[in-house]
Amino acid sequence: MMRLLSGLLLACSLSLSVHAERIRDLTTVQGVRDNQLIGYGLVVGLDGTGDQTTQTPFTTQTMSNMLSQLGITVPGGTNIQLKNVAAVMVTATLPPFAHQGKNIDVVVSSMGNAKSLRGGTLLMTPLKGVDNQVYALAQGNILVGGAGASAGGSSVQVNQLNGGRITGGAIVERELPTDFGTRNELVLELNDVDFTVAQRISDAINRYAGYPAASAEDGSAVKIKASASHASQVSLLAAIQNLKVSVPVEDARVIINSRTGSVVMNREVILGTCAVAQGNLSVTINRQDRVSQPDTPLAGGQTVVSPETQIDMRQQGGTLQHVKASASLNNVVRALNTLGATPIELMSILQAMESAGCLRAKLEII
Known about the structure:
flat; Flagellar P-ring protein; bacterial flagellum
């Protein structure tokens, strides 16, 4: 009976420490990636919330260039006062294998001093890649998620009004060249560097193929032998990416964000037995001006102002607290809560615990 119970406990501990994930969730295919696009354009149709052209001369220049392309000549020296036009930057992400005619989303952001882009329409804007080639054309009505109103010198605003999104607002005009299917191998890149996971992925692929088709190059890549054809590589990836791999226990980590005071730890964090004393030191400075005047007006004295300063220093807490060893995340949280420390104080405590060797985790400060 005891042997059966110990076996059940071992099986439960293994099931908690190891779990299976699909290869598609652990890796990406080398060469299959997104590409960033950017463009400069104009938004028209604003309700008097556009750029102030006296402070943004590039808006006027862009408007004149666009009108000249449409056959309208603006006389030189004309001071164009525009209120319904804004200069914007347009960004988009070109997905892999995007063919001509595919619609992609674009983000429109004001680059001048426009008050709002609500109700505006983006005029045709070419979107270029890093090679300065045009890959898509964007145009359409902007959807702004914010709202605002102003009257009598008072204003109220909810969310951001100087940026918006056009769903499917760009059409792909040029396909991105790719070498997928032209080589005799595929490379799977791991999302996180881990030699154990790389070897287990290689073993799972070899068991599926029935021969040594895959090999772990290092802790971040697995190379797979394949025939140089699109169809065979697509079918191979379709089968491989759904294979499940047992993922080992992850590293114990504690992440501290010094800017926001956030402390996040994963389930593998363990505490060793230690004693912690945490005290609060407060210094209060009180300054008052004391006025001294002569006893009688005819005494010939002068009124003197002398400052009086009082400094009070107090230290609260500082008692030594016993922190028991904790092997689970719930016990770790319970042990740290017994200290009654604020998040800022908890950062210093965790750093001291790591130095003392009682925090069994990697401490990262971001």
